[in-house]
Every structure is written in structure tokens, then in C-alpha cells.
Design a protein that fits this description.
Blueprint lengths: L2 E4 L6 E4 L35 E7 L2 E8 L14 E7 L13 H19 L6 E8 L11 E7 L4 H17 L3 H9 L5 E4 L3 E4 L10 E5 L11 H22 L4 E6 L10 E6 L6 H6 L2 E3 L3 H10 L3
Parallel strand pairs: 2-13
Antiparallel strand pairs: 1-2, 3-4, 4-5, 5-7, 6-7, 6-11, 8-9, 9-10, 10-12, 11-12
Bound molecules: zinc ion (3 copies).
Length: 309
């Protein structure tokens, strides 16, 4: 039976449409054809990108590399769209995906995220740094070489503001963190996907997207930059696990993920929301703000949970 569900946190609604009886295989997308030509993100082509801001170096050159976006959405030079827009190339190999890297190499990407957040947060007038990733054309990228982006803004993005308001409202009522409570609930529920030493992963109750998965530190921590060394390793392992499971089940699906961290000075519970983009938003979704999700999160979690990598 279909079910209209409200998000645990936000005033956001979805229709979980169970009646269509879809299987994971029904969500597998056609692979886009590889484009020929020179890749600006490959080693040796550094001159094709804007000037390097920061890189992590290994014995054979850089392993993670950051620079300003060639066509920035925000810039320190745009008074009306003040901010930063950067690209973080996650690896020096062209034909691999993030989950194919060893945990140590994914950890370097996390270290890069932390360095850039630390640096950019110090700039006067920056209110928020959003790190996100587009993987695959349906998720908004035409460059197959794995990379994340960062957009810093002069205001806190609406979605983060809404989460923060809901977080505070719950805290004022209960003196507890809503995310800590959600983790406790979901680690006992049939939406649990897995957990490791530091992180918990589950399909949210009001999942908007088929196989949507959230990754949260088990310890209450406001930002990725405040994780301990061990927790950063757990995050690298958690990303490798969930992206690996999605890859295996849905055959390299397009997806977005984004990091929700506390704006500076605020308390919050850091998390990453991973959104496979295997269905399209249509008129009803645009017109109502309510998303119809044809894969119940309980079924999605059970499929992802039982997969071995
Ligand atoms: Zn490349
Ligand atoms: Zn918490
Ligand atoms: Zn969030």
C-alpha cells in the first residue's frame, strides 16, 4: 500500500509507492558512452585547469588536486554572488570510481575536504561551505574523471537552514540531538544498511530517491573537520562501502552526495546524504514539492545490506 510519509527532520513529504513492484534491476541506467578527447583532470594536463590551490602529493605526483572552477558560480570577485567555487579532483586515475580506491586514498579526499573547509571558512563574508559530488551525466556532470566540488556562499543555504531550525526546535524541546536519536532508532530498524566503528548508514524513513542512503558519525560531532583520525578512517571506509554497494547493485548509477556540516559557531550533527539519480523528477514533484519514490527505503536497505562486496 502506498504511504505519504513526513521526513523525521523537515516539513518535507514523500509518497512511498510500493505498489509498482519494482526490483533493483529496474533502476539500472544505460551507461553513457565514454567521450573521446583530452581530459583536463588527468596528470600531465594541469595547464588546462585554473591554477592549483592545494594538492596532496604522493611518491608519483599529486593524488588529490584542487583548483577554482573554470566557470565559477560564486567568486570573491562577484559582489552579488560572493563566494568560492572549487573543483577537487579525487584521484590521478581517469577510469576508476571513488569506491575503487583503497580506504587510505579515500581518506586523502576527506583530508582535502577538511583543509578547504578550514581555509575558506576563515574568509570574511563566507557563511557556508557546501561540498558536493555529481557522478554521472544524469547527476549533472559531463566529466567522467572523479571529482567533487565546493561552493562557498555569503548565506547559509535554505536546506541547511531548515535542518538547523528543525535541529534547534527538537533540542529545545528534548535537550537531545535529533540526529543522535535517529541513529539509535535506525540502527534497530529495517532501514539499517551497515555500521562500522565510527559511522552509521541507513535509508532515511522518508527517502526521496530510490536507494537514498545517509552516512552519519555515531558520535555527536558538528562538522567533518572535527572528526578524530579514527573517525575519518571510518568515514573513508563507510563511503567505500556504501558507494561500492550502490555500484554493485545498480551498475555504476549516477548519484549526488553532499556534506551537511554546521555553519561556524553552530551546533549540529554532521552527515552525508547520498542520492542515486535513477529516476526523474516530473511535473508533480516540481509543482508540489512532494516526491514519489517507487523504492521503499526498507526494501532498498534490505537489498543493500545483503550485498557482499
Ligand atoms: Zn582524466
Ligand atoms: Zn547528534
Ligand atoms: Zn542534511
Amino acid at each position: 500500500m502506498n504511504e505519504l510519509r513526513k521526513d523525521c527532520l523537515l516539513d518535507r513529504w514523500v509518497i512511498i509507492a510500493e505498489n509498482r513492484g519494482k526490483r533493483p534491476v529496474d533502476f539500472i541506467q544505460k551507461q553513457c558512452e565514454a567521450k573521446e578527447g583530452v581530459c583536463a583532470f588527468c596528470p600531465g594536463n594541469e595547464h588546462l585547469t585554473p591554477k592549483e590551490i592545494l594538492s596532496i602529493k604522493g611518491p608519483h605526483g599529486w593524488t588529490v588536486r584542487g583548483f577554482e572552477n573554470m566557470y565559477p558560480a560564486t567568486s570573491l570577485e562577484f559582489p552579488q554572488a560572493f563566494g568560492r567555487h572549487e573543483v577537487i579532483v579525487e584521484m590521478n586515475q581517469h577510469n576508476k570510481n571513488l569506491q575503487d580506491l583503497p580506504v587510505g586514498a579515500i581518506r586523502e579526499v576527506i583530508d582535502m575536504y577538511c583543509s578547504r573547509i578550514d581555509d575558506i571558512s576563515k574568509i570574511d563574508g563566507i557563511a557556508y561551505v557546501l561540498i558536493f559530488k555529481n557522478h554521472g551525466e544524469e547527476a549533472g556532470t559531463s566529466i567522467p574523471h572523479e571529482h567533487s566540488q565546493l561552493i562557498a556562499l555569503q548565506r547559509i543555504p535554505t536546506l541547511v537552514e531548515e535542518e538547523l531550525t528543525a535541529y534547534k526546535k527538537y533540542f529545545n524541546k528534548t535537550e537531545r540531538c535529533i540526529f543522535c536519536d535517529i541513529i539509535t532508532m535506525e540502527m534497530e530498524s529495517d532501514r539499517k544498511i551497515f555500521e562500522n566503528d565510527g559511522f552509521a548508514c541507513f535509508a532515511p524513513f522518508a527517502s526521496r530517491f530510490p536507494f537514498e542512503s545517509w552516512l552519519l558519525p555515531k558520535r555527536h560531532v558538528a562538522s567533518i573537520t572535527q572528526l578524530t583520525n579514527d573517525e575519518k578512517n571510518s568515514l573513508a571506509d563507510g563511503l567505500k562501502t556504501i558507494l561500492g554497494k550502490l555500484d554493485k547493485l545498480l551498475k555504476n548509477p549516477p548519484y549526488n552526495y553532499y556534506l551537511h556540516i554546521a555553519p561556524s559557531g553552530e551546533d549540529f550533527h554532521f552527515h552525508i546524504e547520498i542520492c542515486p539519480r535513477v529516476t526523474k523528477l516530473a511535473g508533480f514533484e516540481l509543482g508540489s514539492g512532494i516526491i514519489i519514490n517507487t523504492m521503499p527505503p526498507e526494501k532498498a536497505a534490505s537489498e543493500l545490506k545483503s550485498l557482499t562486496l
